[in-house]
């Protein structure tokens, strides 16, 4: 059983026959570290399941600062969600952070599966709800917690971020400067 099939079998109630149909729509990609999968201004055509490695979505401000919106490690799904849904030009970038093994599904196949398989549509709804909650929590943390509190919370709840991300990416994710991050790490 392939990784995408295993993931679907353990994270959905989709029948085996439909899991096979879904997994056939995903194509395996081996992608080198620091590869841009999507640039600002392009339309997002793919949604990715991370088998091995990591991907981030980020924006670049008018001042040229990177602001990381989301990071996905193994067994997670990621895309430029606004562009993928709307099929309009993206305002963000999608980039691999490590050499990665990904399963990609294109927009057309993804939405065809939503029409064909009701439990795939339910899985998608749950994915969207989870994405919303995650992003809402990140905004809430940014507004209500200090840089130290955000760092401490990430370290206690998601230590993988601190273990696997460079200081530049971690600072961008926490929305702090690298200097502030270095001070926090040294305490």
From TrEMBL:
Gene Ontology CC annotation, any one: cytosol
Domain Cyclic nucleotide-binding: 21-114
PROSITE patterns per the UniProt record, alphabetical: CNMP_BINDING_3
SUPFAM superfamilies with a match to the protein in the record: cAMP-binding domain-like
Single Gene Ontology MF annotation: DNA-binding transcription factor activity
Cited CDD domains: CAP_ED (cd00038)
Protein name in UniProt: Cyclic nucleotide-binding domain-containing protein
Source organism phylogeny: Bacteria, Pseudomonadati, Bacteroidota, Sphingobacteriia, Sphingobacteriales
């Amino acid at each position: 059983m392939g990784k995408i099939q295993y993931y679907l079998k353990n994270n959905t109630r989709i029948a085996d026959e439909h899991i096979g149909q879904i997994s056939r729509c995903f194509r395996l990609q081996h992608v080198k570290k620091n590869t841009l999968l999507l640039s600002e201004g392009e339309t997002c055509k793919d949604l990715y399941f991370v088998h091995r490695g990591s991907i981030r979505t980020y924006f670049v401000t008018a001042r040229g600062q990177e602001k990381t919106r989301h990071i996905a490690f193994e067994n997670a799904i990621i895309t430029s969600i606004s562009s993928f849904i709307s099929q309009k030009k993206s305002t963000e970038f999608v980039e691999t952070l490590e050499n990665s093994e990904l399963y990609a599904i294109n927009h057309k196949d993804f939405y065809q599966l939503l029409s064909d398989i009701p439990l795939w549509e339910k899985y998608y709804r749950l994915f969207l709800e989870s994405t919303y909650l995650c992003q809402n929590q990140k905004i809430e943390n940014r507004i209500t917690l200090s840089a130290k509190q955000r760092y401490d919370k990430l370290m206690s709840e998601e230590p993988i971020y601190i273990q696997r991300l460079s200081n530049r990416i971690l600072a961008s994710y926490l929305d702090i400067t690298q200097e502030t991050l270095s001070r926090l790490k040294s305490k």
